[in-house]
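Worked problem 6 (solution included).
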Amino acid sequence: MNRRRALQLLAALGTTGFVAACGSDTDAQPTADRSPVKIGLITPQGGGLKSIGDDITNGFQLFLDLHEQRLGGHPVDLLTADEGDTAKTGKAAVEGLLKQGVLALTGVVNSAVMVGIRDTVEEARVPLIGSNASPSSLQSVFYIWRTSYVLDEAGRALGRYLRDQLPANGRVAIIMPENVGSPDVVRGFRQEFGATDPRIADPVTYTNATPNPGKTTYASDITKALAKKPTVVFCFFAGAAAVEFIKQLREKFAGPVYAPGFLTEGTVLENLRDNALGIQTALNYSADLNNTSNRVFASAYRKKHQVTPTTYAMASYDAAQVLDQAIQLTGGKPTPQQVNLALGKIGQIDSPRGIWQFNQPRTPQQKWYLREVQRDGQVMSNVLINELATLG
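Solution. The predicted structure is:
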């Protein structure tokens, strides 16, 4: 067992203090004299997406906790910035971190923010390892990588599944917020379901995209979408918006609900309780995946935060992991450009989600899983049902 694995396993057991005596069989160069590096973490620090930002912060910090607060052997100075909820606030966050001389950037929750900071990141020639927002419009980027997904993949995974599960006389109502990511989800869903299939012929109902909805924000749009008496609802919400949407939907519709997994991730389940029962989602991660990396990650995360880790935390943990490997490859004095080139050389990642690797568009080639919200004692949980597809 090498030193890094010992750190991970012992930390998960709460015994990291013993690791100082461990030797190393993988570190080719001494790390004690390596200079500190600055990493910029961009997340929303308020509003309806704050809980996702907190998970991203927690995931990245957990990796540092398990690796002596180092990446690639270098002590890390983790600088944080508030992405806000617009392209303008996101750009200001990036520019502030760049002025402080960061080696790399990570985080970003909102797809509109990611689109808005694209040119700033590319012109600065500093790598951004995004751990959530990943619209398909990010084409031909050189310095932007993502450890999460591309949004159309969640739609594709569920489109393929529902095409085979829905009866011939079934009907799908598609309800989406009018934002940057929704067209990606819809396109992927229609592509795999069959664009001309009469079961999905009804127009998409687009709703208000506010991250902080009120108790009647979606009511009229839900009524409109349900007018043709659909068999199932396919939707795409996250955070506080997911909570309000499902509460308002359940007042008028008791049938099956399908969505990308963000609908039931994290604090959403705590707030929805019985309203979430039976909802099926597609996601690139489930906390009950049975692999060594996930057992280490999930155990350590639960020990530190007393909650089950989310896909947001996992993707941020992996962002730290790929940065760790890339910085290690650059040697003792990394530059942003060297780190960016090294990111393309790290190969397969041994992740809590399972093995994955970057594809040509700098996003993961990975498995997608079907989950269902079930009761686990007094707690609602996303239970792994089966594997849906490998996409990317």
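Discussion: Residues 1-28 have pLDDT under 50 and may be disordered.
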